[in-house]
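Checklist before submission:
- one chain only
- standard amino acids only
- sequence pasted in full

Submission:
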Amino acid sequence: MTEEITATADSTTATVALYAPDSVGEVTFVAADAAGKALVPNGPLDELWRGGDEDGFSAGGGDAGWSTVTQGIGYDQNQTTYDPYIGSDMQAVMYRNHPTAFLRLPFDVENPLVVTSLVMELRYDDGFAAWLNGVPVASDNAPNGSLQWDSSAPSSRPDSRAVDFNAFDLNDHISDLRVGRNILALQGLNRSSTNRDFLLQARLRGEEGELLMPSGYYFRVRVVE
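Returned file contents:
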């Protein structure tokens, strides 16, 4: 195998994972109908809800006041286009009230080192931002700059596109996975609180391999200056 390693000092240590041949298989970390916690905020929240510090989140009240939901979340007043994808209806708390909904989706990872690929797939109307354990990983049709508790999407997204899963490559964020409990957090953005539909549904998939654990490996390194 060949892997590029960038030296950051006179001495650089790099972890190189080796997997058993033909051992890689698909795994779903967050299913499209997974349970989670949702909140339509009435005021500013600190960023702990985005994950990364669950002890701090719990100390500040945690998910008290959040609703237990089944994905996806949303509503559809115009027609039944989104109904097959909505597990928890948010019309009563969002329509004519708020353009934003927060969603926390917990999942467990036994060993992040065996994860070889990671992709997040979303159905959304109209925009979103996503965090993995507090780290920003993806966004679309979201306002420039910092998101606020009452942010809205800058433009509308066609229903015909919203019902198809849009894939976001999270391979660069595999290192943000943790042993045990992880949090995929999303802020769903509607064009306005008077929009007659809204949708947010996430699926997190990847691949895992069997990690080889031999007594030792020897490497030949070519230094490029």
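Reviewer check: The helical segments are 54-59, 91-94, 159-162.
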